[in-house]
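Lab notebook, design round three. We kept the backbone fixed and only want residue identities now. Task for the bench partner: fill in a sequence for the structure below.
Input structure tokens:
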């Protein structure tokens, strides 16, 4: 956990800007919802922008990072989970606590007021805190879909994976189709970490941990059936201090063209905080 306390004062120090590429190592499916079904199209289409180009929503990437960190930190237990929604069949449970040193709540923000825990208790008196982490939509690098790939795709930029669920009693088949961005496609991602106090500087190590976990997990739907394996590369990390915004000072390049291991080593180094001036 972090070194934040109840008396930690927030004052803007700067922003860490992390950019890089997400490469699909298997087909990627992030669903668009039932409202976008087309006649003759896949049962489960991927989300696309106004120009019909697939992208990774920032909410999907951010939510997956949060979920993975909650699990690895042992925070996905009834004692630590609260209800965002209790609608039957659509329950939403996430971690939230009133501990000021809770990395997940510091990174992703904390709601105030009365919140009901899954265990039946009430989480009362939690002080609202601003989210430090901003994750932007990641656009597809269209050139990463090569002419050779296009020859074998079902659509200009996507493939359709056929799946079949079989009833264990009657053996009746229930076929379905899943639209996916193909393996080899790349997306450009951008993550910004606000540093609002000295205690925020070590939080980059937690972000790097979440990204490392993501590489051995899955993004989007169908992960347990092979979809959504991704890798990160070409990482660039810049520090933009308060003077960058108020006085036009130069940004400081901390990484360029790096792999995820280099980001993790940098963020975990003892002298990392001293680089953010």
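Proposed sequence:
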């Amino acid at each position: 956990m972090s070194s934040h306390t109840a008396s930690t004062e927030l004052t803007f120090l700067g922003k860490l800007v992390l950019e890089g590429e997400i490469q699909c190592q298997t087909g990627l499916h992030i669903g668009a919802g039932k409202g976008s079904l087309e006649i003759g199209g896949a049962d489960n289409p991927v989300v696309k922008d106004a120009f019909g180009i697939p992208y990774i929503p920032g909410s999907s990437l951010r939510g997956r990072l949060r979920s993975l960190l909650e699990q690895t930190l042992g925070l996905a237990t009834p004692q630590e989970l609260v209800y965002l929604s209790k609608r039957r069949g659509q329950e939403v449970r996430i971690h939230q606590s009133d501990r000021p040193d809770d990395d997940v709540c510091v990174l992703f923000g904390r709601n105030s007021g009365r919140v009901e825990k899954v265990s039946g208790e009430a989480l009362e008196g939690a002080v609202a805190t601003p989210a430090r982490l901003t994750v932007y939509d990641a656009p597809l690098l269209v050139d990463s879909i090569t002419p050779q790939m296009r020859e074998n795709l079902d659509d200009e930029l996507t493939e359709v994976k056929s799946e079949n669920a079989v009833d264990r009693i009657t053996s009746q088949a229930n076929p379905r189709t899943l639209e996916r961005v193909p393996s080899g496609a790349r997306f450009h991602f951008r993550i910004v970490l606000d540093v609002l106090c000295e205690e925020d500087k070590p939080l980059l190590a937690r972000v790097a941990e979440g990204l490392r976990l993501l590489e051995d997990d899955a993004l989007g739907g169908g992960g347990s059936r092979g979809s959504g394996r991704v890798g990160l590369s070409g990482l660039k990390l810049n520090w933009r201090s308060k003077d960058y915004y108020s006085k036009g000072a130069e940004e400081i390049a901390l990484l360029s063209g790096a792999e995820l291991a280099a980001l993790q080593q940098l963020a975990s180094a003892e002298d990392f905080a001293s680089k953010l001036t």
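Keep this in mind before ordering anything: The mean pLDDT is 90.
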